[in-house]
Design brief:
The structure is a single chain. It is built from 1 helix and 38 strands. By secondary structure, it is mainly beta. It folds into 4 domains: 60-183, Lipocalin (Beta Barrel); 190-288, Thrombin, subunit H, CATH 2.40.10.480; 293-361 and 368-373, no CATH class; 377-452, Thrombin, subunit H, CATH 2.40.10.360. The strands form 10 sheets. It has a 4-stranded antiparallel β-sheet, with no helix packed on it. Strand 6 and strand 7 form a beta hairpin. This is Outer membrane protein assembly factor BamB. InterPro entries: PQQ_b-propeller_rpt (IPR018391), PQQ_rpt_dom (IPR002372), Quinoprotein_ADH-like_sf (IPR011047), WD40/YVTN_repeat-like_dom_sf (IPR015943).
Amino acid sequence: MIQSLHKTMIKVLAVTCIASPIAYNGSLSVISAEQAVISTSNPYYNEVKAPILVPVWSSPLAILKEDRITGQNVTALAENGKVFALQRNEKLVALNATTGKKMWEFGSALAPLFTYSNGFIYGLTQNGSLYAVNEAGKKAWSASLSLPKATSIQRLGSTIYVTQESQFAAVDAVSGKIKWKAVEESNNFTGLSELMETDGVVIRSYLSQGALTTAALAAYDSLTGKKLWDHTRQWWPLAVKDGLLYSITNTFMMDDDAVNRNVKVSVFNVKTGELKGERLYKWTDTENKDGAFTFGGVNGTAFLDGNDFYIFQGKKLVKYDFWNYSAEGKPVQTWTSMAKEKDYPLNQVHQQRMLYSNYDTGTLSALKLGNGQAVVLNNGENPVVQTDLFGNVVYSGQSDGLFHAYDMLTLKPIFTVKTGSRNFAPSLKTEGMLIIRTDNKLLGIKLPSSIK
């Protein structure tokens, strides 16, 4: 009986050692998990609930080299049911946008910079030559420009214009013949890529560097490349009409009255650059005595949309009739700006909505011009990396790899794609297909029939 009792005690002790945090190793000690210094939880409100769409196809995309990372890089375009893309072997390929099937490939050692116009792709090789290839993949011509660091290629009329910092070239779009090349001699010139051609004059914007870096305009004869005129402190033209060019003048550090504000529009003869007149759109601001910079409109910026000239005046947004100017004229409409801290205007009106983006979150918001209501168009789970608006649909790639589509008018999510990438480039759309561009691949998405 004593032996039986002894065995029972051993079993009880064994079970106790297993079930209890107390272990016996000659002395008794307590074992416990490490405790967090602090532990908090936050409610999760912004989960986007929408059908998950799976890509119909995917294709590798060229990875940009560090010496080619600029704001003007192009690695893919979509036109006429085709996707033209630069792949990792530095060849240009054409893919069927619906199936992703390769239709043809062209060239070698091509640069991530090309454009499409009138059935042709115009692009740059890594050694700086310009090439033209048709939609069937057949080479039309090449031109040796020696512009290996070019930042833009644009077709305006019958001419292809290529820019590289202070250099500027014009090439005949049909024959590939170089018409002319121009070089700015000033060391203070930093090239930008905005171009327009009007009345036989090519207008180019650039940055003029000095004690103050500011935007400037230069004009060239479109036939010869001869420089006609330039003006510093002038932003990209609002409009050109009846031989006159309208441009907002940058008055920073020239007219910095914090209370009596104005937007100055200068009017130039487009061919000679002669100043033909000036306009002042005036308003009064409340003095900011604490000296803090406030967002919510980027006070004093303005843009033209048809006949409507919009000016962001602090907490107000106003609209003038641009083509019926008078010195003491009043706005034809005024709204209270509903922009939040760090919202900045995109200088775009779509569906009677003024569009804004947020510096921190990347979210897209809008002020409804009909009733003054502010709405957020793509409020998702994480910061937005890329936003694209096609028609009435907002497409947003987030930093967590989720890619959402929202109806701009109803604000409802339409679908979600799990991309597996944190980086996105502008999306493409052609014939019912959305092409999502990540940092190293293309994803073909068949759009629902409800999206036009």
